[in-house]
């Protein structure tokens, strides 16, 4: 297993920790839960750039990484957006549900499209594009 894939798996493992810390902050209002959740999110977001850099720089691109990296991105972003769409009263601002539904619907439609192409052609090759990378970065900044 490559270093880049290990970092990506670490990012995936940070998502449940992020969720628990946000919910703990909402339930108890203790600032240290807030800081831990922000730290987990920022660490996962920064590691997104780090694992990509390592994969490219040290020729560690792999089929596993091509699957895990976008999965880690989607898990983190969907968790953040869903958590922010819930009404948390005084602790956190909340996003409108239409925005959450739009983001999730977009991801579901992309997955359905990939599934259709896979079943029609037998193989799907997904190559990262600068617009997709920019979209992910902007969503992470927004959350």
Key terms for this structure?
single chain, 143 residues, mainly alpha, globular
What count of structural domains? 1
Computed structural class:
mainly alpha
Q: What is the distance, rounded to the nearest whole angstrom, between the alpha carbons of the first and last residues? A: 31 Å
Report on the biggest sheet.
Answer: none
Mean of pLDDT: 90
Order of helices and strands: HHHHH
Instruction: Note the beta-strand portion.
Output: under 5%
- Stretches where pLDDT is under 50 for at least 5 consecutive residues are none
The Rg value, from CA coordinates, equals 16 Å
Total number of helices: 5
How many beta-strand runs?
0
The percent of residues in helical segments reads over 70%
Oligomeric assembly: single chain
Global morphology: globular
Topology:
Elements (H helix, E strand, L loop, with lengths): L2 H26 L2 H27 L5 H23 L11 H25 L8 H13 L1
Could you characterize the architecture of this molecule?
The chain is an all-alpha fold and 143 residues long. It has one domain. The chain has helices at residues 3-28, 31-57, 63-85, 97-121, 130-142. α1 runs antiparallel to α2 (31-57) and α1 (3-28) runs parallel beside α3 (63-85). It is globular, with a radius of gyration of 16 Å. It starts with a helix and ends with a helix. The mean pLDDT is 90.
């Amino acid at each position: 297993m490559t270093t880049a894939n290990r970092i990506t798996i670490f990012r995936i493992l940070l998502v449940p920790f992020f969720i628990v810390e946000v919910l703990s902050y909402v339930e108890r209002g203790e600032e240290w839960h807030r800081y831990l959740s922000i730290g987990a999110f920022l660490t996962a977001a920064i590691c997104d750039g780090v694992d990509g850099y390592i994969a490219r720089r040290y020729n560690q691109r792999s089929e596993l990484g091509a699957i895990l990296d976008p999965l880690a991105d989607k898990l983190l972003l969907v968790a953040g957006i869903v958590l922010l769409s819930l009404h948390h009263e005084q602790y956190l601002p909340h996003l409108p549900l239409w925005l959450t539904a739009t983001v999730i619907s977009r991801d579901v439609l992309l997955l359905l499209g990939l599934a259709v192409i896979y079943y029609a052609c037998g193989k799907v090759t997904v190559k990262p594009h600068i617009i997709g990378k920019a979209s992910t970065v902007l969503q992470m900044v927004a959350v």
